[in-house]
UniProtKB/TrEMBL annotation:
Cofactors that this protein relies on: pyridoxal 5'-phosphate
Lineage: Bacteria, Pseudomonadati, Pseudomonadota, Alphaproteobacteria, Rhodospirillales
EC numbers on record: 5.4.3.8
Protein name: Glutamate-1-semialdehyde 2,1-aminomutase
InterPro entries: Aminotrans_3, PyrdxlP-dep_Trfase, PyrdxlP-dep_Trfase_major, PyrdxlP-dep_Trfase_small
One example GO MF annotation: glutamate-1-semialdehyde 2,1-aminomutase activity
Length: 451
């Protein structure tokens, strides 16, 4: 190991000790949980944090979280987007409290659902909507629709993408060849038979992959946000739309993370024209809910393929989707929380956060860069932005990511446990950002010359 590696390892040891000493209650709960949950957590992603044992949450409100040992954290992870408008916004608390006493789920539609769909239509410019329980489901069902209405079996995704646990998208490029994403368990189908994968921003590869005319849809985020952040080149989206139209391929834009851009996501801010738009995570304030919207042309093709097919098991939908509670909270989020004014504040704070990070990085001579999509900010351990998922994956520094994550936790700040992701919510304050920048500065100082 080189000198820098030894420095990082030494810092990490000190942070692990500090965390262990400071969190005896979480430690006890972790020991108890290990008897009930394989791996000690109810969802294995909860082990992705850099902590030696899970930090147990006691409660959270706005942009603050309190752990089981009573420490208060400024939360920039915000449930990895699920709570990006703050934990338990007041309008959601009121709506949930009221609705829970009036019936949660009956497999019947409610008027709140219509209001929510109308709000989605005017926000995103797509007339028709369907509701799911998660963003994963929204993507899964859109792939099924796209295949059904085009009669084509293949889909195309970009290298480094993530769209939830949609198996079809678990394909990566390794040395230019498509392979299953490492870690995928129990999948017995060769996903590369039906999924093409090319690098983001590679228009020539995209064109070659669409040219055979057998791709039902391209599914992508407007910018890749799950492998660090990869922003589209100037003109990439215009080329993507042009090529998909030319080859009869539908375009699905997944706004689940890029809803940080503004009230109508990246789609509205940059005038994209998707055939389908998918979205989930924060849209019902953390109450499980996903949605997908589509054009009138798609709706007409859906009706066409449904004619003559027996009604019933389409392979889409789950029992609790679009229940009365989810529809009420979705409506309230759209009407009262995800407002233009809320976004203006969040994005201004994120800009402030990004500038502060850049200043600290420069002050300590680190060759890192910062990216921002509206209220979403990340810092990366390379001097220049990535142009595609392959580059981003090659630049990952897990040991450094873990150290920064734990260093910040030990100083009262939560950022996402992957690729240094931070969100500013309507509840986030200037003081909280100052507190974060103070902790980040200490971390950058410790790493100066070694990272
Ligand atoms: N789309 C994108 C872009 C995502 O990042 C994620 C989750 N990180 C999903 C969809 C799936 O969300 P969920 O796990 O809530 O279904």
């Amino acid at each position: 190991m080189n000198h820098a590696g030894k420095v990082i390892e030494g810092l990490m040891r000190a942070e692990l000790d500090r965390y262990t000493a400071a969190n005896p209650v979480s430690r006890r709960l972790a020991d108890r949980a290990a008897e009930a949950f394989p791996g000690g957590v109810p969802l294995h992603w909860m082990r992705d944090w850099a902590t030696p044992f899970p930090l147990f949450m006691a409660e959270a409100k706005g942009a603050e979280l309190v752990d089981a040992d009573g420490h208060r954290y400024t939360d920039f992870c915000l449930g990895d987007t699920g709570s990006m408008f703050g934990h338990s916004p007041e309008p959601v608390v009121r709506a949930v409290t009221d609705q829970i006493a009036r019936g949660v789920t009956a497999m019947l539609p409610t008027e709140d659902g219509i209001a929510a769909a109308e709000a989605l239509a005017s926000r995103f410019g797509l007339p028709f909507w369907q509701v799911t329980t998660t963003a994963t489901d929204a993507n899964r069902f859109v792939l099924r629709w796209a295949r059904a209405i085009t009669g084509r079996s293949r889909i195309l995704v970009f290298n480094g993408c993530y769209h939830g646990t949609v198996d079809d998208t678990f394909v990566r490029l390794v040395d230019g060849r498509p392979v299953h994403r490492p870690g995928l368990l129990g999948q017995v189908i060769d996903l590369t038979d039906h999924t093409r994968v090319v690098e983001f921003n590679d228009v020539a590869a995209l064109e070659a992959a669409l040219a055979p005319g057998d791709v039902a849809c391209v599914l992508t985020e407007p910018a890749l946000t799950n492998i660090g952040m990869v922003l589209p080149d100037e003109g990439f989206h215009a080329a993507l739309r042009h090529l998909t139209r030319r080859h009869g391929t539908l375009l699905v834009i997944d706004e689940t993370h890029s809803i940080s851009t503004g009230p109508g996501g990246w789609t509205r801010a940059h005038g994209l024209e998707p055939d389908f738009l998918t979205l989930g995570k924060p849209i019902a304030g953390g109450i499980p809910c996903g949605v997908y919207g589509f054009t009138a042309a798609v709706e007409s093709r859906m009706r066409h393929v449904q004619a003559g097919v027996p009604h019933g098991h389409s392979g889409m939908g789950t029992t609790l989707s679009a229940n009365a509670l989810a529809m009420r909270t979705l409506r309230v989020m759209l009407e009262e929380v995800m407002t233009d004014a809320a976004y203006a504040g969040m994005v201004a704070l994120a800009r402030h956060l990004a500038r502060g990070l850049e200043a600290a990085i420069a002050r300590h001579g680190l060759a890192w860069h910062v990216t921002q999509i509206g209220a979403r900010v990340e810092f990366h351990f390379t001097p220049a932005p990535y142009r595609n998922g392959g580059e981003a994956a090659a630049a990952m520094r897990p040991e450094l990511e873990q150290l920064v994550n734990l260093f910040l936790i030990n100083r009262g700040v939560l950022i996402a446990p992957f690729h240094n992701m931070m969100l500013t919510s309507p509840a986030t304050t200037e003081e909280q950002i100052a507190r974060f920048l103070h902790a980040f500065d200490a971390c950058a100082a410790a790493l100066a010359g070694h990272a």
